[in-house]
Structure formats: structure tokens, C-alpha cells
TrEMBL record:
Keywords: Repeat. This is DYW domain-containing protein. PPR repeats lie at residues 113-147, 214-248, 315-349, 416-450, 451-485. The keyword Transcription does not apply. Pfam families: DYW_deaminase (PF14432), E_motif (PF20431), Eplus_motif (PF20430), PPR_2 (PF13041). Residues 630-722 form the DYW domain. NCBIfam families: PPR. One of its GO terms (molecular function) is RNA binding. GO terms for biological process: RNA modification. Belongs to the PPR family. PCMP-H subfamily.
Amino acid sequence: MAVNASLTRKLCNPSNLTSLYSLPTKIRPLDPATVSPFEFPAPVSSQAFDYSFYASLINKSTHKNHLNQIHAQLLVSGSQDDRLLITKLINSGVAFGEIRYARNIFDEFREPDLFLWNAIIRGYSRRNMFGDVIELYLRMQVASVSPDCFTFPSVLKACCGLPALRMGCRVHGQIFRHGFESDVFVQNVLVALYAKCGQIGPARVVFDGLCDRTVVSWTSIISGYAQNGDPMEALRIFSQMRQSNLKPDWIALVSVLKAYTDVDDLIQGKSIHGCVIKMGLEDEPDLLISLTAMYAKCGQVTVARSFFDQMETPSLTLWNAMISGYAKNGYAEEAVGLFREMISKKIRIDSITMTSAILACAQVGSLELARWMDDYTTSSEYRNDVFVNTALIDMYAKCGSVDLARTVFDRTVDKDVVVWSAMIVGYGLHGQGREAIDLYYTMKQHEVCPNDVTFVGLLTACNHSGLLEEGWKLFHHMRDYGIEPRHQHYACVVDLLGRSGHLEQAYDFIMKMPIEPGVSVWGALLSACKIYRHVALGEYAAQQLFTLDPYNTGHYVQLSNLYASARLWDCVGKVRVLMKEKGLSKDLGYSLIEINGKLQAFLVGDKSHPRHKEISEELERLEKRLKEAGFVPHTESVLHDLNYEETEETLCNHSERIAIAFGLISTPPGTTLRLTKNLRACVNCHSATKFISKLVNREIVVRDATRFHHFKDGFCSCGDYW
DNA sequence: ATAGGGTTAG
């Protein structure tokens, strides 16, 4: 089979997929902690009490039991009131993860001083037990112990998250009252706190108020902007930092790399890589993770992989960076492969690994693989993770089953906006606009506030179902939630208006847009013009597109399709010439079909399959039956329709048809056929597949470049509207 | 104290 490199990359190696199914479904439990014996010296008499003796003993401990023995000794020797030693015991208890034990020691102490309070508060803060932190902090105030610069960082950490931010603001006030408003240590934590709560404004105010900024202050504000979707500002501040002659440390570089990762600026990212080498930090394993992530996200997966391979034992985070880097750049097969490797090598996996692997499966599109992934997840400890469940919902929807997506949705506890949105988007993908809208109202009943993505999903759902009025209403609903429409939202409205034939209104709407119309908006107008053969307006839209996005093949193809639909064959030819001049060629069409968990690929007119003979017999049979059933091929315009597949061959040689024929001879009667196409459904194949679904009494599910079609009994779920 | 890998849309 003659396939180009990018195609080979997209297709999955079936043997990889099938071997995945035989893997164990349980995640390995962690090894139980082993307790090494502790050599406790002979009991000492009370007069032999020595602070440094006990201190070194505590330092040597490795288990709670050791601490217990020392504590007992302190009691025997009457030194149980030594604040420094008790603080040390508490700190060690925390370090061993024995927070309850540390708390007992603390509770036994009469009138704890500031050191003890700090130790136990810090302990809870390290274990992320924020409720206890706040409770103890309040009790400390009741006990009239004044906090100091060691108390505030732990307490502020506990104020992360919007609901706790009110507490954070109160603590901010107390920091002033206790005179720590110029303590860099405390102020740095305040910057980080506000930034983590998405309050970048207040974070900036605190940062600007600092007179002696340390590397940590700069790093906090840089990562604050990087985390809050403003990487450009993060980078601006980074250059200010360098002007102030402060040398960035490796953590600062990690934050900057994150910003470049989001900006998708490989050139600048590389220059930071240069910085890393100049500063001799290239062996810093944690910096390597950021570099890997940066290169992977900017599409340089091979470079990223070389970093990965140079580590003898990659950390979990590095595995995750590599897997998600692959998954996000269309290297689904590699991503799933690495995940498989982790399982077979019994390497520890976390919810981030799961999420990234699920994302990759969503791209593969195999329902069987999706099911396997779901089973694996449900039998693991991540079955209630919101991120994982959201990814599963998305995966099932993209693998063709809204029903299974709904099952995951229903079993997800504590649904946030993203969960609801993923389900709404899923309904939209399958053209179930009504269900999407219903779910939106249910979501509001649950008092979950929609976001901009929710509306992209809703508007797309309306498009895929032709719900003009509902879409229009929803678009205006956005402002009630203070959501500014973005390009996608405008594009959806243009699509809605255009597809329902309101071309003039669509054009007026574009002219009145408060933001500069972008590629998606003009693209929507152009495809509407194609449907209604509005050549003049379509040419205008195409002109805008050629200026904004000159090297995107899709726009030329669309214009050519418009000309073809209006039978302006000369113009079709001109577009072809134009494309040639720019060195653009259209994508080759292919279809995948899943048979018994294996994906099989077919190109246009594909004759390479081992069962080619049987397939062509089936194709002939099908064509005969189609004719008898009264199917008339839409030859003329389709034959010139560049959007679809190469037309040198006859229409029934489109990859979709071949894949269906193969599916019919490879599965028992009544089995649902599941196909994935890289291009959009062509008019001719679409109506042929409707006929076929009735003739052979099969359900046929087709995922095209933009949505799903469910063919059944001669009808398609899209209502011929796509 | 400061950070890196994750979900919906594009």
C-alpha cells in the first residue's frame, strides 16, 4: 500500500493494539514499607541528659517506632518539656508521614510555644491537610501566640483554591498587622498564592510592592502569568528579570520553558535550551522534563524522545511529559505504546499517565481499545478522578459511542464544568443537538456555571443539528454569564446562519463583529457559500482566507468545490494551478475500519488487501443492489469535488465504500460497522451509505473529519446536514 | 518558599 509518511504515522499498528488487550487489568499495589531495626543505646540516667545526644538520635531515626522510643526516654528522664526536642520529634514524625503521631505529641504538650505551633502547622500544610492547618492557626490565635515569618507560608499554602481565598485575604491583613509586609519570604508566598487562585492582579500588586526581589519572587510572578494563560507577559517579566542582573536558577527556567511551551515558540524555547547549557544545568533532571515537554509540545517529538532516552530511569513526570507530548501531536500509537511499556515494566502510573493515554486512545478511534482503557481505569484507583473521567467521556464520544460516554458521565461524582462540557461536546459531535441543550439546562439546575467552551460545544451541537433559533438564543445567553464570545463562537453563528441559507445576514454579522474576523469565521462563510453556490461572496471569503492563512490547503479546496458546485470548471482549473504554484497538494483520502479490535486502512481504489478479490466481488454485488434499489450516483459535481477523494477512479472506489465492503464480508450479519475517515463525507458516499445500511440491514457509524454519522435503515443521524 | 507532566474547545 503506497502511503506517505504522515499517513503511516496516523494509522495504528494493529498488532500493537491487539497485544494491549491481553495485559493485566489491575494496577500493582505499592510495596509495603519495611521497618529496619533501630539500635537504641542503653537507657541513660536522668542526670546524663544531653540535648545533642537526643537530637542526633532523632536525626538517625527512620520510623515512627524509633521516635516513640525516644519520646519514652524523654519522659523517663524528665525532659519531656524540652521544646526544641519535641519540635524535632514532630518534624520527624511529619517526615515519616505520621501526621497523626506528630499531632499526638503536640496535643500532649502543655502551652506549646511558637516553634511547636509552626512545626505542627507546617506538618499539616506539607500533607495538604488544609482544613487542619486553618483550624490550628485559629486555635493558635486564641492561645495568643503571635505568628511569625515561618507561620505564614504554611498557612497561605492552605488558602489555595478560590473558596479558601477569603481566608487568604484575612491572613494577608494579619501579615500587615504583624509587620511582615516587607518580609520577602512571606511576600513571595503571597504572590504565589494569588497567582494559584487565578488572581494575577493582586499577585502583581504584591510583586510590584517588593523592594528586594529574589529569584523566588521573580519565579513566582513568571509562573503566575504562565499558569494564568498569559505566557507573553511571563516572558516580558523574564526579560526584565535578566535586565536586573539576577541570575535565574533552574526553577525559574522551568517556569519560562512552560511559557514557551504554551506560546508554541520553538525558536525562543531553543534559546532557553541554550541558556540551560551555558549555565551548565543540562544535567538537572527536572529541567530535562521541562525541555522534553517543550520540544514535544512544539512538535519536535524526536528531540523530546532523545531527552527521554538519555535518562536511565525516567521519572514518572518524564514518562508523562513524553506520553502527553506524543498524544497531543497526533502520535497516538507511540503514546499508547509507551503506556503499554510502563505497564509491562511495572512502572508506577498515576492519574496524569492515565489521562494522557486516554487522550491518545481518543485519537486512535477504536471503540474496542476505548473499552479496554475504560475497564483498566475502573479497576484502578483512578476511577473517581475527574480528569480521568472527563478524558473517558471525550474518548468514548470520539470513538463513536455517545451512550458509553453518557455511562461514564452518569457515574462521575462531583461533576465540574469541564465534565458537563465534555458531554455536551460529545452530543454535538454526534449531531444530538437536543440532548446537548437539555443537558445544558440540567447543568444549570445543578448550579454549575457554563464557560466559554460549554458554549462552543452548544453552538457546534446546534450547527450539527440545524438548530438555528436555539443557537442564536444561546449565543446571546453568553453575555449573561459575562463570557466574551471568541472567534469560535462567532464562527459557529456564521455557520448557523450560512448553512440555513441566510448568507446576507451572515455577512452583516461578520461586519458587526467587535473583533477582527479570523480564519474560522471566513471559513464558515466560505463553506456556506459552497452549499448555496454563492460565488461572489465565496470568492470574497476565500480572498480573506488566502491572506490570513495562505498555506492551508483546505481553503483552496473549498473554493474549488464552490466553483465545481456552480459548474464553473475553468475556475476550478485556475484554483488547481494556484495550488500547484504554491506547492500545495490535497490530502489523500483514506478510511479505517475496525474488525475484531484491529484497525484496517484503505486508500482510494485500494487493491493491496490480501482479500482484495473478495472485496471487489462484494463491491460489485453492492453496486448492483444499489442500482436495483434506485440509487442514482451524483456524478458530475462530485467528480470535481476536490474536498473528497481522488476522482481518477470511479466513485464506488472511494475508500469508504471499500472499507464497508470489507466490513460486510468480515463480520457476522447485523454487526455494526465502525469507520473513520480523514476527510469529510462526500455527497455521493453519504447517500450510498444510507442505501447500504438499509439494504444489508446494518448500522454503520462513520467518523469523518468533523463529526459522526450514524447510518441506519436508510437514514443518517445528521439529517443530511453536515 | 519558587516548578515541571493532565480533562472540554481551537
